[in-house]
Design a protein that fits this description.
Layout (H helix, E strand, L loop, with lengths): L1 H8 L4 E8 L14 E9 L7 H10 L9 E9 L5
Parallel strand pairs: 2-3
Antiparallel strand pairs: 1-2
Protein name: BolA family transcriptional regulator
Organism: Leeia aquatica
GO biological process, one term: iron-sulfur cluster assembly
Length: 84
Amino acid sequence: MEALFAERLAPLQPSHIELVDESGEHIGHAGNTGGGHYWLTVVSESFRGQSRLARHRLVLTQFSDLIPGTIHALSIAAYAPDEL
């Protein structure tokens, strides 16, 4: 899955990507008909000057064809390089 996320995020030219698969913690919960639960941290110059909402939209656009489906839930922490 990490390779897929890296490939999808490549247009944002991230300097750092961290993906945590939390799917095991959500097995059998109501509404989960498949797909993984992920926590994504991504650092990119593309986020400089962008609001939190704009950053999330930039990320989610890269995965729109996988939600829902391959991805059931995606939590996002998006930072510009100097914000860490």
